[in-house]
Design goal:
With about 400 residues, the chain is α+β, with helices and mostly antiparallel strands. It is built from six helices and 21 strands. A seven-stranded mixed beta sheet has the order 11-10-15-14-13-12-21. A hairpin with a 2-residue loop joins β17 and β18 (about 365-375). The longest helix is centred in the N-terminal third of the chain and has 21 residues, at about 60-80. Mean pLDDT is about 85; it is low at about 1-30, about 35-45 and about 85-90.
Length: about 400
């Protein structure tokens, strides 16, 4: 907590006395993440959980990025357990994104590191010649990545306390990021009435590049590396769906027979309970770590949440506080005769679109869809449904 308070104070000091600076056009000097795993001495403590990788005919770059993320997770786990220290100015990873900057069919890996917006920087990697190589880095506090659809490049949109910029870079000769091109700068006067400029106004079709948490800072120390976004990029195979009657029978054993299941965070925040039962899952501090009251299972609904062709069971969970009620959602998914529960924080609504896609409304203008497989799960932003129906919720009895 002290780190986050310090970072907040630092951000206020840096931005309150002078206009905030956009990402530098020159790559900042930052170290590569510590990804060398210390020699194993205690097998029970020296490695995190192994990531569950769905079947698929994966490309070499996917295999390489998967191994890279697994090694990074192992090294940072050892750091968390006090068995390995970061050297110099190394910072723990926060999240990563995949985007094909040079349009060669292989996405670059953008690894954001740091403890808070005041100190975030991003390391950029690519896969070429059968190996991963570094392309450089840039400051990335208060910024987001956007696509460049019709040409080589990626957009960095920066915005903080009224000051903003939109910059673009491609991959230059010699395998480094650059040159940088400043497309727009904005001051408080520019953004006071209209807000920050959408990059799509400058480059038609530009869209936000999704990012996914690396598990290091928000989830339990032994959480597996999140590799599912790499698998989802291409070539992931979907298993043959179970018959819905069979799915419902297995789920009902969890709901009414106290059968065990695996609790996994659905969105990168909470819900990592491991093997548990519904009674234990709903207790204070279990699936949701905040509040003194237990979660109460109010309603259930059935839908194919992750688009794999198999029906899942959604649980509407409430927790009473003094002046409000927290509403969460858990999704029970049957996979290879085991049940996994994916927990999603503070859900306002769940909608099923005409094509069957299920989207979660986090707050008024924020909608997300989920992808999961065993101990892997993440969400990505999606547009607000043009047309959708609410789920057929039934009271839980």
């Amino acid at each position: 907590m002290k780190k986050y308070i310090f970072c907040l104070l630092l951000a206020l000091c840096l931005t309150g006395c002078a206009p905030a600076a956009p990402p530098s056009s020159a790559s900042v000097s930052v170290p590569s993440p510590a990804i060398t795993v210390q020699e194993e001495t205690e097998p029970s403590r020296s490695l995190p959980q192994t990531a569950d990788v769905p079947p698929g005919d994966y490309a070499p770059w996917q295999e390489a990025y998967t191994e890279f993320l697994a090694n990074l997770r192992s090294a940072e786990y050892q750091h968390t357990m006090g068995e390995l220290s970061f050297s110099g100015d190394d910072m723990p990873s926060d999240s990563y994104s995949l985007y094909d900057v040079d349009k060669d069919g292989v996405p670059e890996l953008f690894l954001k590191c740091g403890n808070c917006e005041a100190d975030y920087y991003t390391l950029v990697y690519t896969f070429h010649g059968g190996q991963i190589s570094s392309l450089g880095s840039f400051q990335s506090g208060h910024s987001s990545l956007y696509t460049v659809p019709e040409e080589d490049g990626v957009i960095i949109r920066f915005g903080h306390m009224g000051y903003g910029s939109i910059e673009k870079f491609s991959i230059g000769e010699g395998g480094v990021i650059g040159p940088w091109e400043t497309l727009l700068t904005e001051t408080e006067e520019d953004t006071r009435e209209k807000g920050y400029t959408d990059p799509a106004q400058l480059i038609p079709g530009a869209q936000l590049v999704p990012s996914c948490y690396t598990c290091t800072q928000l989830r339990p120390a032994d959480s597996p590396a999140l590799v599912l976004p790499v698998c989802d990029y291409q070539n992931r195979e979907l298993p043959a769906p179970m018959d819905e009657v069979q799915v419902r029978a297995v789920v009902e054993q969890v709901l009414y027979g106290n059968a065990p299941f695996f609790g996994v965070s659905g969105d990168g925040f909470h819900g990592d309970t491991g093997l548990t039962t519904l009674e234990e899952y709903l207790r204070p501090g279990a699936a949701y770590p905040y509040g003194k009251q237990p979660l109460e299972l109010k309603e259930t609904a059935w839908a194919d949440v992750n688009g794999d062709g198999q029906t899942d069971c959604l649980l509407r969970l409430e927790q009473e506080e003094e002046k409000w009620i927290n509403v969460h959602c858990a999704v029970l998914s049957v996979q290879e005769e085991e049940v996994y529960a994916y927990f999603f924080d503070n859900i306002q609504d769940v909608t099923v679109e005409p094509n069957g896609a299920v989207t979660f409304q986090i707050y008024q203008d924020c909608w997300k869809r989920a992808s999961f497989f065993k101990n892997q799960s993440y969400t990505v932003p999606t547009s607000e449904p043009v047309q959708g129906d609410g789920l057929a919720w039934d009271p839980f009895q």
